[in-house]
């Protein structure tokens, strides 16, 4: 049977063999601003909203099929709408709480659970906080932790840096209110997929800067500790042209189609003057000092062999492991799979390798939670 390529659960038409991208000299240069990445004139924000709405409806259908495969993933136990406190774009966003066995008795027993704060994929433009429910099941069962998935505000309605700031706010919320929710703020971790994999990293950078500012203003912040970051096939460098990433991939025909990446970039990378080397956007451009200050001891990073983002993810993992950053990096490149392969809309079975790798990731998370 012919394999239908998908992106975050959406069936898409990809490039044919005769349409493989070619790299020109201009493609090899690093991009400096959003205008360099999106082009001129940029699509109207109104048109981007219509396109995003269309792709969101397709993605919803794809994820509905994805959830049908046995074993069915859990539903959220409860939700919380919280106000943004970091972003200048004031508003609210929702946190989806999935709770492990025994949580219902925590008020009587006084037990506090670890928590994994998660960010969904979809190019910062499509997707939902419930998309990673299959991963949530393993976090609940293997880590015995609360899984908190953020419905951060998306673009084009809320372009960069709102998603990063909301993600940092989600962690900050658990730092302040965790004990009331039977969560131990000393045992937090962050995870994310694709764009969410970027947020799992950049949210810690944003949070570190915010906490530093609070400390300088003598604002009290409860004791807390982020034990690990788990980032799945993240984008970490927006200064590299998409055409270069696609053309230098192991399988250019299996990479994200230009139809979607153009929508994602035009929606998120705004205004045109936005600098693409901003660490909240391209964490690979952060200084060693910034990364050493913000990232926890354990960094878990997965890339996909056929993904255009594989090379930058591998480069980032190698950098984090070496001095002066020196993190305990658990890196794995998953052979023979495209970007977001684990979100395949197959109602008959989970994606190949996905459950084994979710289990492995949770073993790393559990180890990080158990460290003194």
Automatic annotation (TrEMBL):
Sequence segments annotated as region (Disordered): 1-22
Keywords from the named record: Hydrolase
Top-level division of the source organism's lineage: Eukaryota
Domain Alpha/beta hydrolase fold-3: 116-341
Pfam assignment, any one: Abhydrolase_3
Molecular function GO terms recorded: hydrolase activity
Identification of the protein by name: Alpha/beta-hydrolase
């Amino acid at each position: 049977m012919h394999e239908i390529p998908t992106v975050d659960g959406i069936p898409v038409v990809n490039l044919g063999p005769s349409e493989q991208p070619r790299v020109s000299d201009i493609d090899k240069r690093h991009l400096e601003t959003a205008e360099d990445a999106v082009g001129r004139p940029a699509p109207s924000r109104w048109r981007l909203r219509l396109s995003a709405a269309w792709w969101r409806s397709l993605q919803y259908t794809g994820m509905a099929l994805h959830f049908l495969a046995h074993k069915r993933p859990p539903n959220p136990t409860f939700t919380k709408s919280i106000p943004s406190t970091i972003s200048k774009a004031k508003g609210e966003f929702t946190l989806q709480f999935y709770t492990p066995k025994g949580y219902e008795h925590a008020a009587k027993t006084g037990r506090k659970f670890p928590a994994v704060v998660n960010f969904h994929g979809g190019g910062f433009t499509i997707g939902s906080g419930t998309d990673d429910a299959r991963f949530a099941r393993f976090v609940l069962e293997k880590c015995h932790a609360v899984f908190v998935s953020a419905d951060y505000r998306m673009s084009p309605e809320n372009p960069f840096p709102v998603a990063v700031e909301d993600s940092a706010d989600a962690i900050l919320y658990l730092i302040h209110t965790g004990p009331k929710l039977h969560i131990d703020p000393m045992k937090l971790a962050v995870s994310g997929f694709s764009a969410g994999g970027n947020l799992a990293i950049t949210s810690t950078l944003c949070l570190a800067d915010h906490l530093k500012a609070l400390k300088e203003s003598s604002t009290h912040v409860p004791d807390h500790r982020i034990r690990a970051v788990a980032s799945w096939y993240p984008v970490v460098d927006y200064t590299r042209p998409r055409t270069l990433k696609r053309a230098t991939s192991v399988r250019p025909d299996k990479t994200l189609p230009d139809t979607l990446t153009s929508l994602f970039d035009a929606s998120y990378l705004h205004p045109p003057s936005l600098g693409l080397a901003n660490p909240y956007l391209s964490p690979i451009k952060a200084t060693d000092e910034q990364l050493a200050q913000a990232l926890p001891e354990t960094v878990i990073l997965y890339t996909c062999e056929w993904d255009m983002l594989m090379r930058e993810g591998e480069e980032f993992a190698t950098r984090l492991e070496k001095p002066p950053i020196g993190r305990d990096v658990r890196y794995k490149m998953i052979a023979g799979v495209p970007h977001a392969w684990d979100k395949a809309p197959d109602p008959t079975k989970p994606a190949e390798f996905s459950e084994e790798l979710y289990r492995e990731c949770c073993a790393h998370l559990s180890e990080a939670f158990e460290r003194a």
